[in-house]
Amino acid sequence: MKEITKDMKIGEILDNNSDLAQFFFAMGMHCLGCPSARNETVAQACMVHGTDADKLVEDINDYLAKNA
User: Is 29 left (phi over 0), alpha (psi -120 to 50) or beta?
Assistant: First the structure.
């Protein structure tokens, strides 16, 4: 996975790169194994957890670029 978008489902992201769980844990999302969490988009999860989706996507994509 080269980059993510805020429309991608969390389960899809984590299935491709489990190292990215750290970003979701950092925003307070500790239920990553839950079926409903896995089916949320990044934007939906950010809305529920009061996090800026654009900033999270930027941070994750920076991480992916540096660790490719």
Answer: beta
Alpha carbon distance 68, 54 (integer Å): 21
Condensed to tens digits (0 to 9), the pLDDT of residues 7-65 reads 999 999 999 999 999 999 998 888 888 888 889 999 999 999 999 999 999 999 999 99
Q: How crowded is residue 23: how many other Cβ atoms within 10 Å of its Cβ?
A: 18
Report phi then psi at 51, rounded to 5. Answer: -120, 145
pTM confidence score:
0.91
- For the record, the structure tokens of 13 come out as 């992201």
